[in-house]
C-alpha cells in the first residue's frame, strides 16, 4: 500500500509538472522549433527575448498592473471584511454574497461587461481598464480570505481597542492589520499571481499598451518557437518566486 501511495504521488507530480518541464527544456533548444529531438542547449532565445523592446514593455506593464491591482483589491477586501465581520447588518449575508459573486462568473463575461460599461463612460481600452478588471476579479478572493481569517479573538481585540479610545483607522492599522498579516500576505500574493497570468480581461481591455500574456499570444499567432518557450519559462519563474515568497512569509509568521 505504501508503494502504491508513492507511485500515485509521483504520477500526480509528473502529470502536473511534465508540461512545465518540457516547456523549460525546449526553451534552450538550439533550433527553430521547440520539438523533439533536443538538439543541444543555447541561451540565444533568452538573449533574444530580453533584448526585445516590445516584450520588455509588456513585462513591465504586467508587473505594474499586477502590483497596483493587487494592492487595491487587498485594501478594498480588507476594509470590506473588517466591516462585515465587525457589524451584523440586516443585509450582511446578501452583501457577502454580492462581494463573492464575481468568483463564480467567467472572466469572459466579466470582460465583456466591463468593456461595454467602459465604452458608455468613455474609458478607452488601456492598462487602467485592465487594472480595474483585475481588481474586480481579485477583490472577491481577497475578501473571502480575510473574512475567513477574522475569528472571535480578532473581533474581541478590535472591540477592546475601540473601547479604549482608538480611532477607526488606528484600530485597522495597528490592531487588525498585524493580526491578519498571514492572511493579508496570502491574499496579496494570490491576487498578484492571478493578475500576472490573466489573459482574457487583458486581451479585451487593452489596445496598444498590452500585458505579457497578450504579447505572448501575439507571438504564438506566428507559430511555436523556442522564444515563446523562453517567455513562458520566465512567466513561470515569476509565479514560482511569488509562491515561494508566500510560503516563506506564512511559515515564518507561523513559527513565530
TrEMBL record:
It is found in: Cell membrane. The chain crosses the membrane at residues 6-28, 58-81, 93-115, 127-150, 170-192, 230-251. InterPro entries: Bact_Polyamine_Transport (IPR051789), MetI-like (IPR000515), MetI-like_sf (IPR035906). The keyword Transferase does not apply. Residues 59-247 form the ABC transmembrane type-1 domain. GO terms for cellular component: plasma membrane. Coiled coil: none annotated. GO terms for biological process: transmembrane transport. Keywords: Cell membrane, Membrane, Transmembrane, Transmembrane helix, Transport. It holds the Pfam family BPD_transp_1. Its main location: membrane. The keyword Transport applies. It is a multi-pass membrane protein. Belongs to the binding-protein-dependent transport system permease family. CysTW subfamily. This is Probable permease of ABC transporter. It comes from Salipiger bermudensis (strain DSM 26914 / JCM 13377 / KCTC 12554 / HTCC2601) (Pelagibaca bermudensis).
Amino acid at each position: 500500500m505504501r508503494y502504491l501511495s508513492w507511485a500515485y504521488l509521483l504520477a500526480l507530480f509528473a502529470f502536473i509538472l511534465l508540461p512545465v518541464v518540457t516547456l523549460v527544456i525546449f526553451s534552450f533548444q538550439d533550433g527553430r522549433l521547440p520539438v523533439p529531438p533536443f538538439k543541444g542547449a543555447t541561451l540565444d532565445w533568452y538573449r533574444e527575448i530580453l533584448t526585445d523592446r516590445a516584450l520588455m514593455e509588456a513585462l513591465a506593464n504586467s508587473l505594474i498592473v499586477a502590483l497596483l491591482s493587487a494592492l487595491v483589491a487587498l485594501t478594498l477586501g480588507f476594509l470590506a471584511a473588517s466591516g462585515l465581520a465587525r457589524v451584523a447588518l440586516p443585509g450582511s449575508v446578501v452583501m457577502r454574497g454580492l462581494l463573492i459573486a464575481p468568483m463564480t462568473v467567467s472572466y469572459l463575461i466579466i470582460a465583456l461587461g466591463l468593456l461595454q460599461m467602459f465604452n458608455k463612460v468613455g474609458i478607452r481600452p488601456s492598462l487602467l481598464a485592465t487594472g480595474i478588471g483585475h481588481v474586480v476579479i481579485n477583490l472577491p478572493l481577497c475578501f473571502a480570505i480575510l473574512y475567513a481569517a477574522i475569528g472571535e479573538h480578532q473581533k474581541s481585540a478590535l472591540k477592546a481597542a475601540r473601547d479604549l479610545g482608538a480611532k477607526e483607522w488606528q484600530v485597522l492599522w495597528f490592531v487588525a492589520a498585524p493580526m491578519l498579516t498571514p492572511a493579508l500576505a496570502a491574499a496579496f500574493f494570490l491576487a498578484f499571481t492571478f493578475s500576472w497570468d490573466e489573459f482574457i480581461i487583458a486581451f479585451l481591455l487593452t489596445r496598444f499598451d498590452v500585458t505579457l500574456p497578450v504579447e505572448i499570444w501575439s507571438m504564438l499567432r506566428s507559430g511555436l518557437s523556442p522564444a515563446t518557450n523562453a517567455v513562458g519559462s520566465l512567466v513561470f519563474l515569476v509565479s514560482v518566486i511569488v509562491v515561494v515568497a508566500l510560503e516563506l512569509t506564512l511559515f515564518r509568521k507561523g513559527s513565530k
